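Pilot study result, target chain (124 residues):
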Amino acid sequence: VADCATIDRVLVDAAGFRGVPQNSQSANYTCVAGDAGKHILHPSGGGAGDTFTIPANSSVAYEIGTTLTFINRDSNSVSIAITTDTMYLAGTGTTGTRTLAENGVATAIKVESTVWIISGSGLT
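Predicted structure:
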């Protein structure tokens, strides 16, 4: 018989709840394969004019369904860009670089090999 911690962990893992590990970046940053399922934090004091970039599928072939979450704790907005693939703003269908305001949270989901959809609070 497994102990309660093991049982809880197994049940939680089976349900898909694994947490959202943090990768704190206080300058321009291009996401890497290891960022899949993580949140990229722009911390307080991170700096002005910083851009977080989702690389092209030809560079980092994230699986369809991959999520990347972005959080901005700095008073300066942070840009979320994509290289040669396409990122659509949910609900509007507009493409291109997005701006994430202070205390904003946005999640990008890969829905096709070269297509991402991003949505969130504080995102324009």
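One observation from the pilot: The CA atoms of residues 32 and 43 lie 19 Å apart. A full batch analysis is planned for the follow-on phase.
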